[in-house]
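Can't attach files on this board, so I'm pasting raw text. These are the components:
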Amino acid sequence: MNPLSTFKYIKNNISKALPVLISMMVSVLLIYLFSLVSKSTSEMANLMDTNLFRKYTIVSSNNEELIPKDYFDKITKDNNVGNIVPLISEPGYLHYNGIFGGMSIAVLNIYEKDISQVITTLNVKLTEGSIPRLNKNEIIIPKKYALQNKFKIGDYIGSEISSSYAIKGKFKVSGITDGPVMLALISSNNGAIPRDTVINHSILFSVKDIKDKNLINYLSKNTPKNVLIMDYYSESKQIDKMLDSMNALSYMLNMIIILVLCISLGNLNYINFLNRKYEFGVLSAIGYKKSALYFKLWKENSTVCLLGYIGGILLSTLVAFILNLTVLYPNGKFIPMWSISGAIIALFIPIFVSFLSLIAPIKELRKTDPLDVIGGVI
Amino acid sequence: MKPLSALSYSKNNKKKLITSTISILVAVSFLYVLQTFVKSLGDSMYELNVNPYKNHMTIQSIEKDKPVPDNILTMLKDNPNVENIMPFVAYQTRYRIPGCFTNASILGIRPEDIDYVMKKHSIILKEGRLPLENHKEVALDYRVSKNKKVKLGDKIGNSIDKDDTLNGEYTVVGIVEGNDFLSFMPYNTTITVANTNDTIVVQKSILVFPKVSKVSEVDNLLLSFPKKEVAVMTLSENIKSYNEVASTMSTLDMICMLAVIVMVISVGSSKYVQFFSRKQELGILNAMGYTKKELMKKAFWEVLIINLLGFILGVIFGWLSSILINDGAFGAIGAVSVHFSSKGFFMALYVPLFTTLFTLIPVNRMISKLDPIVMIEGI
Amino acid sequence: MLFKVENLNLIYDMGKEIQTYALRNINLSLEGNRLIGIMGPSGSGKSSLLYSLAGLKIPSSGTISYKDMKFKELSISKSTELRRKDFGFIFQRHFLIDYMTVLDNVLTPINDNSMKAKEKALGLLKKLGIEHLAGKKPHQLSGGQRQKAAIARALINDPKVIFGDEITASLDHSSAREVMKLLDEYKNNALVIIVTHDASILDNADDIINIWDGAITSIKKKGMEGYNESAINL
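---
Top answer:
Structure tokens for the assembled complex are below.
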């Protein structure tokens, strides 16, 4: 190592670099962990909402009137439409506690013979038990929900068990599913409504290519008054709106941390620099240009900040791993171990701090006259 | 001012005082604003979801086509703690609060019952009129109308706004004012034929009004009814589900604590290093005859002044910011905007408290190890 | 007897193979209000003796008593209090606190900002010829002016003993004479002990202790032959 190299400085001044390193590490831990938590929330929102609509679009009438025939024909005749499943009703939802608040798992009521096709299209697997039988008050629930509420096959859910359930009646858990969509399904047609009637009133239709917006654009533009559409684009827009406030909090937190760090580490760096004034004065006197000295100062500062950043990312990953293993997975929750956007947002901290916290020391270095230093005035 | 007093030090080191104070001010105000924001969210949810149940409770038949069993109705009518029961229809309409989707209740009430219901909930008609029977009309709570940005004559429902949880299309004919976020529609006895997208099924439901100060008795009565036959919503159940949701706010508390730790470490480190650079000064004072206890006292007061100043200014700034932010995010959309939060105050207090501790512990160690001779001889 | 030193030894690197005697077998009695000089070359132990007498250095063996109080029997806080009340220090480097004005620096030992104290401080600064710099900060002063401010600081609490360590090292000749003239006045009210290697400033000293290699080689009284010779010549 060259005598004036950055690593030599850090190696010989660990006690001075440590406060900056630790501050940086803990700040990055906070921001990155928060971004992992945010990512978990948005992934849960996908699991519970948008992923369903990547594969299926729901079209239904909001009153006794049927879906107008021409509108309905447009759907059935479109090439981008796969299977069409009649939707008997949407009897409620199941409440799931996410990391950042409660979420709703949709409960759909469809005919028993359509259930296998639906879960296959959604890439959801029945990991335990069996699909619900028609009119037997049975329900299949997602694995994470089952874990959170400690449900197993044979347990009961519904308002008859507790009024905290937003689904009326009493349903026996007949199966547990796992996959990219968290959805609960029942098969209940006590009114014996014919399939043809239901299919003209409310349907789920599978979409072959979600990027092909032709049908959706038509359906959205020409929607009859009594028809409701729930498609991928409108649902993801809603979810984005909900996640907006979390993103806003993340940016605000980031900015506050950067501000606090810039001021306090700036202070710290200034004091550390004052103790090295003699060193820099001498270097300047023996022939190092001021620009080289500014660069040396910045390199040392940014290296410490970067090391803190790396330490913070590693520590966050470790914390996420431990949290997942001990607390979250057993309760049907999770935090992802990695988030590129989170890492980039957290990177702003060492970048800004390494520059801004050097303003005061560099100002001081600029007005340092090497003669004053070597002449013993300072 | 005595030359060695903390005030004298502050006066002579204004720049250091300002930079240290700003760090603490920012940390304190951020934590305070965050807590008031969260409280605004929580209080809005509480008023929206729990408040209505302070004056009424509901009971619905489990089975779609069947009304509430007669024996249950009789028990309610005969109960001395129940003041009144009446049929109603439960509707909901989307109510937007930052960070979550929730719904406000709309009660479908018969014309002969509406005055009673409004009186019990201390609701008055502010503008327009009440909805007429058999008309697709609604009288909205003023905060709900603010949230939806609608006025008299406008329409609401998922035929107008896709995201609304209210099926169909209803004209706003009146604006009501009360504490319970309740709106009113005409009473309808429509039973669903095929399916609907309602999350609350439109069927015969009963509103139960307890007598004054008999709320818990009626609460217990409703909870005692067989769950196979009826689904009840009481005040205690509502508070329970609200608390379950509110418990997830602990994630935000964890974030706050982490933020406190970050700020304490960074601000505390810079304060400690500042003292470290004054080792010579402290050593010479010790040589001159100031005891280590006196030096520690001096350090304590200097650190305290900065932290106290930062805290006070931070709380003031935080309070002002929370007025601005929460009024904009919540007040403007008809939700509850909180400006004062004791939890926010105490959480923000952690910053100066732990920063003082984090600074003084190593400073104390440094002072106790101080050897004036080392300073004098420049070793 | 103001100071009594018995069999004083100050050893560095005790317990190691090579031990360094900063002071060896010092026996001394100092009393009265007088000016005492301690002379010797660099590394002879003169500053060690000075700071041992001040209670700042703890001897490896032997005793030092001040007014019949043995330093080793005093608690740390008691000996610190003693320094504050009875002693005044003029160090080799000025050690002024750089964020304080000259006036505040002078008032530091008594930590008093009353009018009476300020007047006293200004009086001292006037005697040293730097009254006009009372409101300035140390970095605005020359080296000599800083040292004069440090001298004023040492005198503000009317010390009974004044310890000076190479106090004229950073002063020009005429300033050095001014300072020594002032200390000469103080010797009527206090015991002034000055460490120096410059014999010329000790013209008015009552006693000169010559020290060499940690041991006292001679103590000359005023008027004695060889009084003002440097220890090296002995």
